[in-house]
Amino acid sequence: MAASRMQRWALWLSGHTYEIRYRKATLHGNADGLSRLPLPVKHQDSGQKEIFYFEQVENRPITAAQVKRATRVDPILSQVMELVMRGTSLRNSQVSSDLVPYMSRRMELSTHSGCLLWGMRVIIPKILRQQMLEQLHSGHCGMVRMKEIARSYFWWPGLDSDIEEKARACISCQGVRNEPQLAPLHSWDWPEKPWQRIHVDFAGPFEGSMFLVVVDAHSKWPEVCIMSSTTAESTIQKLRGIFCHLGIPEQLVSDNGPQFVSQEFGNFMKANGIHHITSAPYHPATNGLAERFVQTMKQALKSVREHSLIQKSLDTFLLSYRKTPHATTKVSPAFLMMGRQLRTCFDLLKPSEP
What we know:
Number of domains: 2
Pfam family, one: Integrase_H2C2
GO molecular function: nucleic acid binding
Strand content: 5-15%
Mean pLDDT: 81
Order of helices and strands: HHHHHEEEHHEHHEEEHEHEHHH
Domain Integrase catalytic: 190-341
Helix content: 40-55%
CATH topology of the largest domain: Nucleotidyltransferase, domain 5
Protein name: Gypsy retrotransposon integrase-like protein 1
Low-confidence stretches: none
Organism: Pelodiscus sinensis (Chinese softshell turtle)
Radius of gyration: 44 Å
Number of strands: 9
Largest sheet: 5 strands, mixed
Distance between the termini: 160 Å
Strand order of the largest sheet: 7-6-5-8-9
CATH superfamily of the largest domain: Ribonuclease H-like superfamily/Ribonuclease H
CATH class of the largest domain: Alpha Beta
């Protein structure tokens, strides 16, 4: 009968498939205390520490000691400093182009602790100028503020242009800057006679209707037609009705609406000998005369609530507008268009001649 421990081992090993092999004792490598000591492994240094270190060095503010060392090795500033310390001046024939900005200020140059100064401003050597611009623009302030700060502390030839270039090259500043100022508008030439150039535009929809607006550039005389459709055919029909009363103009200005740029409308313009001018895309100010009248008309018709009263209100508004002196011409549109004033209900206030 085997020992109980051997029986337990035999019972435990019966659940495994194994093969027993003989191995010499000299080939055994059982672990001991000394074999567990760490091996001398060489680890590669991470590059992040070096990058972090040099970034911190580069971002340090420039000090007077750095300016002193850079001035000493700068070929231009070292020569200028020598001239300032000796109190000598060069003849015009001996002054190179690089020394001209300094020689023109030679009476205001001085030295202090190995640094060259123009008045109270430290002259920065060329090797430190780019880093100084980075430090100056660290707060992402604009050109004006950067120049104001620089004028209180440092200087070098062409500083203002370098600051402007640095501000324009900053992608972050360009992404959040305000929109550029709009270019000045070029006014239309004032026509010499009425109905020479007209401006056309659509207004609406208002109370389910669209309005075709036609304004004369000379007299500011307006014509408004209520339209249920804004197709090219309907637009041509309304314009033909207006032309039969007031004549055919020489020029017609409109936007790039589909009815105005259609082939049918183009053929109508050519058949009547009218020069069609379209406004610049996304620039409604080109057709500003019609656009401004549309705003005035909309403001006057906002009080109309019933569709049946739109035509009545529109006629009343047109009579008042044509009778009133225009802000630009100082004369009423009716007088410039027809050579006479329109008679209104206010004329009843005037006493009649006996």
